């Protein structure tokens, strides 16, 4: 198998259950690791899972609007990635680095397998 990944993607989004989190975007860090079926090896982008498209999927989910829970966002990202039949498993980690002052970050990581 091959792994396609996105590391430390920083984006601003409306996420959280508290009123201040619903009023202003906050920074999150997204990490995605996809286990995919090998491509044909013929140097053709259409035969591989593109990390650029994976990032666009995250951006599209964020553009949908406010989400209460990081768990929900993780599930949405994993489901979007698994729509590509070549993706066999998706590990998604989303962190909020600015929530707990004495922690570098807090968050959730999930893994979903086809």
- Neighbour order of strands in the largest sheet: 1-2-3-4
CA radius of gyration: 15 Å
| Main β-sheet description | 4 strands, antiparallel
Strand content: 35-45%
**Helix-strand string:** EHEHHEE
Shape field: elongated
Key words describing this protein structure:
single chain, 114 residues, alpha+beta, 4-stranded antiparallel β-sheet, 4 strands, elongated
Topology:
Elements: E1 2-13, H1 19-23, E2 26-36, H2 51-63, H3 70-82, E3 87-96, E4 106-113
Antiparallel strand pairs: 1-2, 2-3, 3-4
Question: Gist?
Answer:
The protein has 114 residues and is an alpha+beta fold.
Account of the protein in words:
The protein has 114 residues and is α+β, with helices and mostly antiparallel strands. It is built from three helices and four strands; from the N terminus they run βαβααββ. The chain has helices at residues 19-23, 51-63, 70-82; strands at 2-13, 26-36, 87-96, 106-113. The longest helix is centred in the middle third of the chain and has 13 residues, at 51-63. It is elongated. The model has no long low-confidence stretch (mean pLDDT 95).
């Amino acid at each position: 198998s091959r792994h396609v990944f996105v590391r430390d993607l920083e984006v601003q989004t409306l996420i959280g259950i508290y009123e201040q989190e619903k009023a202003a975007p906050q920074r999150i860090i997204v990490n995605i690791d996809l286990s995919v079926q090998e491509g044909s090896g013929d140097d053709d982008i259409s035969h591989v899972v593109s990390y650029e498209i994976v990032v666009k999927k995250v951006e599209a989910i964020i553009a949908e609007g406010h989400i209460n829970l990081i768990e929900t966002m993780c599930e949405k990202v994993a489901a979007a990635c698994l729509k590509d039949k070549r993706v066999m498993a998706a590990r998604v980690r989303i962190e909020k680095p600015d929530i707990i002052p004495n922690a570098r970050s807090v968050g959730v990581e999930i893994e979903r397998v086809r």
